[in-house]
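dude i think i finally got it to work??
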Amino acid sequence: MVLQSFDFVVLNERYDCSIQMGGSDQWGNITAGIELIRRMLGKQAHAVTYPLVTKSDGTKFGKSSGGAVWLDSDLTSPFSFYQFWMNSNDDDVIKFLKIFTFLSKEAVDELASANLGNPGARQAHKVLAEEMTRLVHGSDGQEAAERITAALFKNSLRDLDESDFQQLALDGMATTYLSQSSLLEALVQTGLAITPKGEVTRGQARKLIQGNSISVNGLKEVDINRELTRDQAFFGQYFVLQKGRKNHHLIVLK
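look at this
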């Protein structure tokens, strides 16, 4: 608190800054700075605070609460940014639409009604993710994020271009770099072949393949002798392994 108060003093003295703004949780720090300015400089300063954005569980929306995203695409890809908003809690999505987007009240109310009528469609989540990704990363980033989302969850991987796979390799999904490998070995190296006891084994990898639980680049694979070679990879380098419905892993051939 003392250091932040003195920051306000320095800003006031050097740059004639007389107003400090912040979240409501910073009220004490800011008013301490106002008092320090009065005592040290004999001048008047002011504070403006605004309510914190909180989630439905009462925790604040911010980096200190975990799960934060960056606006810089090198730190959080447009795909991961899009998924962050898609995964908003059902109880938060309408609130976030009101706070973070420029949609009209009528448009938000319509989405709220649609969300109540058919929550499984997640229409409000899709609009929130679309609006926020376009706002931060532009139309190109938003379209790429939607294209990757559709490819992963609607089995249309062939619609992705090479830059989309590069984006996935950054942080869009779990990624493992391998030399040319067998599918069995890839399942072990990626940790997908994990048993209920938490052990990663070739036996479990074999069981998953034979149980029709593994897809390679969108196609079910039942051949336990399958090799992952460059001539079969997307752009000679990429394989997407899928276990079940939602567990995806990117293989990049070195």
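The first strand starts at residue 19 and ends at 23.
im so relieved honestly
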